[in-house]
Design a protein that fits this description.
The chain has a two-stranded antiparallel ribbon with strand order 1-2. It is built from 15 helices and 2 strands. Helix content is 77%, strand content 2%. It is mostly helical. The protein has a single domain, classed as MFS general substrate transporter like domains (Growth Hormone, Chain: A). Mean pLDDT is 83; it is low at 1-24. Keywords: Cell membrane, Membrane, Transmembrane, Transmembrane helix, Transport.
C-alpha cells in the first residue's frame, strides 16, 4: 500500500508581503516630553535657531581686529571662514540626519552645547590656531542644528496651527540670524570695551538660555522602531523627486556663495581697499545684504513660488552685476547697493530650494533631506570663499571681487532657469 503525502501549501503572495512588512522597522511618535506647549515651543526653537545663526556670523566685523592682534593676511581670513564651513558640512554629513532616528530635541541640545564650547574657545584660546579651531567647532554646531531646527519648526507648526508660516519662519530666522550677527558684532566692537571678548560673552549667555529653553520644548519626531544602525548622510527620495531636488540643490549652492564672500571678506574689503575704518560700517553692510533676504521673504510670502523664484533670480543677477562694477570702480555705494539687491534675491531663491526639499520628503526622512539641501548650500558657500582666498594672494581685491561676482552671476542664472523649467 502506498501512501501519498500532500504537498505543503505554498505561501500566498499576500501573506509574503505581510511578513515582509512585519520585518521592517515601524514608525512611532516619540514621547511628547517637555513642559512647554507646541505653540510656545515653536517660538523657543525659532529663537534658538536665530541666536545660533547670529553667533555663526558674529566674527564678520571683528576680522580686522583679529588680523591686528595676530598679524595674519587677508587670505588667512578665508582659511578661518573655510574652517567654519568645513565644520558645517562635516556635521551635516555625519549627524544632520540623525534627528530622524533619535528625536529633534537631543540633537538641538547637543548643537547648542557645541556652540557654547565654541564661545569658550574664542575667549580662552587667543591666537590664530585658536580662532580656526573655534570656527570649526562653531560650524559643527551649526551643521547639526540647521536641518534639525527646520524640521522641528515644521512639525511644531503642524501641531500648533502654524503650518502655513513654519517654512517662512524657518528660512527667515536662518537668514535673519546670519544678518543679525555682524550688526551686533559691529556695534559691540565699535562702542564696548573688550571688542574681542564682550561679543562672545553676550552670545554665550544667549546660547545658554536657548539651550535651557529647547530642553523644555515638546519632541515631535516620528521615530523608527527598532532604531536603524548608524550611517552617514544618505538621501532617500522617490525617483520622480530626484531631479527637482538636484536642481534645487544647485540653486542653494549658488545662492549661498553670495553669503560666503560677503560674510568673510566685507570687513577686509571695506577697511583695506575702500579705507572705511569702522567696525560698525562693516557689520551694517553685511546686515543690509543678509537682512534684505529675510525682509524679501517676509514681504513676498503670499506671492506664488514661481514668481518668487523669478524675482529672486533676477535680483541676484542684477545685484551681482552691480557688485562686479563696484570692485574696479572702488565705490562703496555700488558695493552696498549691489549687495542688498543680491541679498534680497538670495533669500527668495533659498526659500524656493527649501520648499523643494520639504515637498520631496516624507516625515520620517525630512531631517535627512533637509540636511542634504543644507549640505549643498554650504558646499556652495565654502568653495568660492577658498577660491577667492587663493586669488587674493596673487591679484588685487577689486579684480577678484569683479571676477567672483560674474562667475556667481552665471551660476545663479543657470540654476534658476533650470528650477523654473522643472517647476
Amino acid at each position: 500500500m502506498t501512501t501519498t503525502t500532500s504537498p505543503a501549501p505554498s505561501a500566498s503572495p499576500i501573506a509574503g508581503r505581510a511578513a515582509a512588512r512585519s520585518s521592517r522597522p515601524t514608525l512611532q511618535h516619540a514621547p511628547v516630553s517637555g513642559r512647554l506647549g507646541h505653540g510656545t515651543g515653536f517660538w523657543v526653537v525659532a529663537g534658538a535657531f536665530l541666536v545660533t545663526m547670529a553667533f555663526s556670523t558674529l566674527p564678520t566685523p571683528l576680522y580686522p581686529l583679529y588680523q591686528a592682534r595676530d598679524g595674519f593676511a587677508t587670505t588667512m581670513v578665508t582659511v578661518i571662514f573655510a574652517a567654519y564651513a568645513v565644520g558645517v558640512m562635516a556635521a551635516l554629513y555625519l549627524v544632520g540626519h540623525v534627528s530622524d532616528w533619535v528625536g529633534r530635541k537631543p540633537v538641538l541640545v547637543a548643537a547648542l552645547a557645541t556652540e557654547l564650547v565654541a564661545a569658550g574657545l574664542f575667549l580662552a584660546w587667543k591666537d590664530t590656531a585658536g580662532l580656526i579651531v573655534a570656527r570649526l567647532v562653531c560650524g559643527l554646531g551649526v551643521g547639526a542644528l540647521t536641518a534639525t531646527a527646520t524640521a522641528h519648526l515644521g512639525e511644531l507648526g503642524d501641531r500648533s496651527g502654524r503650518a502655513r508660516t513654519a517654512g517662512t519662519v524657518a528660512t527667515v530666522v536662518n537668514t535673519g540670524g546670519l544678518a543679525l550677527g555682524p550688526l551686533v558684532g559691529g556695534i559691540l566692537a565699535q562702542y564696548v570695551a573688550g571688542p574681542l571678548v564682550t561679543p562672545h560673552v553676550v552670545f554665550g549667555v544667549l546660547l545658554a538660555a536657548a539651550l535651557v529653553g529647547v530642553a523644555l520644548v515638546p519632541e515631535t519626531a516620528v521615530l523608527p522602531d527598532p532604531r536603524p544602525s548608524y550611517r552617514p548622510q544618505r538621501v532617500s527620495l522617490p525617483r520622480e523627486a530626484r531631479r527637482p531636488f538636484a536642481v534645487a540643490a544647485a540653486g542653494a549652492a549658488a545662492s549661498f556663495s553670495v553669503i560666503g564672500v560677503f560674510t568673510s571678506l566685507t570687513a577686509s574689503f571695506v577697511s583695506g581697499t575702500l579705507h572705511v575704518a569702522s567696525h560698525l560700517a562693516a557689520g551694517a553692510i553685511v546686515f543690509g545684504v543678509l537682512g534684505a533676504g529675510a525682509l524679501a521673504q517676509l514681504a513676498l510670502v503670499r506671492v506664488r513660488p514661481c514668481a518668487q523664484l523669478v524675482l529672486g533670480g533676477s535680483l541676484m543677477v542684477a545685484g551681482l552685476a552691480v557688485v562686479a562694477v563696484s570692485g574696479p570702480a572702488l565705490s562703496l555705494v555700488l558695493f552696498v547697493v549691489g549687495g542688498v539687491l543680491a541679498g534680497a534675491g538670495q533669500g527668495l531663491v533659498f526659500r524656493s530650494t527649501i520648499g523643494v526639499a520639504v515637498a520631496s520628503s516624507a516625515p520620517e526622512n525630512r531631517g535627512e533631506v533637509l540636511a542634504a539641501m543644507f549640505l549643498a548650500a554650504y558646499a556652495g558657500l565654502t568653495v568660492p570663499v577658498v577660491a577667492v582666498g587663493v586669488a587674493l594672494a596673487h591679484f588685487g581685491a577689486p579684480s577678484v571681487l569683479c571676477v567672483f561676482a560674474l562667475v556667481v552671476l552665471v551660476a545663479v542664472a543657470a540654476s534658476c532657469a533650470l528650477m523654473l523649467r522643472r517647476r
